Amino acid sequence: MIRVLVADDEPLIRAGIRMILTSADDIDVVAEAGDGREAVEKARGGGVDVALLDIQMPVMDGLTALVELNRAAPKVRVLILTTFGERDNVLRTLGHGGAGFLLKDSAPGELIQAVRAAAAGNAYLSPAATRHVADALSATGATTRGEAARRRLDGLTTREGEVLALLGEGLSNADAGRRLHMSEATVKTYVSRILTKLDCDNRVQAALLARDAGIQPGGLQPRGH
């Protein structure tokens, strides 16, 4: 079981998150907190795999709690959940070692997926957050990064390039499948193949490569399937 701590200063929000997470048979909400300090104290005692923190909380905000958890309970993976999707919050989450960032209007399935990804040691960003990261990095060293990224993409097929282009746009597997008229499972297979070929740890890294390489909707030049 993946043991989760949920921290939010609104009890109704915590109750809704608990209901969503416990609907998955491999996730258990073992603790709740109303502020960041309480979250750190409860996670420090052990028994928590993933901490799901709101950004705006009294006493201690979620990003400060993330830093404290990295010191006090480094094995706990931290996801930031908020209504505020500003670029700075996304970059600060990643810069402080957070396992992911998603918005409160995310679909219930995405929340469950994010917790599973974090527990498995992977990074997870909502599609909107992926776009923020890509945009923030696009103006720094663009020419050098672009050349290096295009070289790494040389081994992709046409269809893999199309899927990668949609990752660069921040689309989920389901949205990419609808765009390409493929099932979500098929897109997931392509994503796994792309990550292996590009030696990327997660879809966020692949999305950044796509943006650096300047891939437009439609993907790479034809190479066959």
UniProtKB/TrEMBL annotation:
rRNA processing found in the keyword field: no
Pfam families cross-referenced by the UniProt entry: GerE, Response_reg
Annotated HTH luxR-type domain residues: 149-214
Keywords, in A-Z order: DNA-binding, Phosphoprotein, Transcription, Transcription regulation
Domain Response regulatory: start-end pairs: 3-119
Gene3D superfamilies xref list: 3.40.50.2300
4-aspartylphosphate modified-residue sites: 54
PROSITE patterns: HTH_LUXR_2, RESPONSE_REGULATORY
SUPFAM superfamilies, A to Z: C-terminal effector domain of the bipartite response regulators, CheY-like
Domain of life, source organism: Bacteria
Record's protein name: Response regulator transcription factor
